[in-house]
């Protein structure tokens, strides 16, 4: 399979990941696994996905335990190929850690794990933070110029997919929070109705009664409302949403 076929296959699989995964964590795990195969099945590569927010870097997914260990060691040194890729927005290729002099202390550890070639490819996420794909290979000079082009093309699509997944996740969380707020409001409205009936008062007066009880007991109005509703019905109040 040539490079163009590899890239087309990887992008198609990336689109499948977007459609099949329901959580950001699962998407990232599958992304790391797919990234490790982006150069083709004949090239043995490990991959980690680094995310950096407010200068704190962490490996959010990896294709193997070795990739996670090497990522974490890099964070300990405070710099290295993937961190530099995030900072500069440019790909960093290391043909052989034994002869590359940029991060000698880190590279000595990498060589001790019998990995000799590395590549850090940035994932441009805009306001969502900085990220990178970290590739590790046991064979020196694995990441040729054509491999770099292939990885960068994949990373461009992966970044877009990750941004979309994050956006959908935020929307889902917002919708969940909105639903919770509306259900809370339903409970309060029902409690107000109960208080109005029991005290023969107006809606405003009923809410004042709830608010006074809330202040006196140092609990939320919602909690006071839930107690009142629970005293009338065995079932909690529900907001019905059309589907």
From TrEMBL:
SMART domains: ANTAR (SM01012). Coiled coil: none annotated. One of its GO terms (molecular function) is RNA binding. SUPFAM superfamilies: CheY-like, GAF domain-like. Transmembrane segments: none annotated. Keywords: Kinase, Transcription, Transcription regulation, Transferase. Residues 168-229 form the ANTAR domain. PROSITE patterns: ANTAR. This is ANTAR domain-containing protein. It comes from Arthrobacter cheniae.
């Amino acid at each position: 399979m040539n490079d163009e076929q590899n890239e087309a296959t990887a992008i198609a699989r990336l689109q499948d990941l977007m459609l099949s995964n329901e959580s950001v964590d699962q998407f990232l795990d599958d992304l790391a696994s797919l990234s490790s195969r982006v150069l083709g099945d004949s090239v043995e590569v490990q991959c980690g996905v680094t995310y950096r927010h407010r200068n704190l870097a962490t490996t959010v997914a990896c294709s193997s335990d070795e990739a996670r260990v090497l990522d974490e060691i890099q964070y300990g040194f405070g710099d290295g190929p993937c961190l530099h890729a995030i900072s500069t927005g440019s790909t960093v290729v290391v043909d052989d850690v034994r002869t590359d002099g940029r991060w000698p202390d880190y590279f000595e550890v990498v060589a001790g794990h019998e990995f000799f070639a590395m590549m850090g490819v940035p994932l441009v996420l805009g306001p969502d933070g900085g990220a990178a794909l970290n590739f590790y290979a046991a064979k020196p000079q694995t990441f040729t110029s054509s491999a770099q082009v292939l990885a960068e093309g994949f990373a461009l699509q992966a970044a877009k997919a990750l941004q979309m997944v994050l956006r959908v996740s935020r929307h889902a969380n917002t919708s969940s929070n909105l639903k919770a707020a509306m259900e809370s409001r339903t409970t309060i409205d029902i409690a107000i109705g109960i208080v109005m009936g029991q005290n023969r008062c107006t809606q405003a007066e009923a809410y004042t009664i709830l608010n006074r009880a809330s202040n006196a007991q140092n609990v939320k109005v919602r909690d006071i409302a839930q107690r009142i509703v629970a005293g009338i019905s065995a079932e909690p109040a529900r907001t019905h949403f059309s589907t």
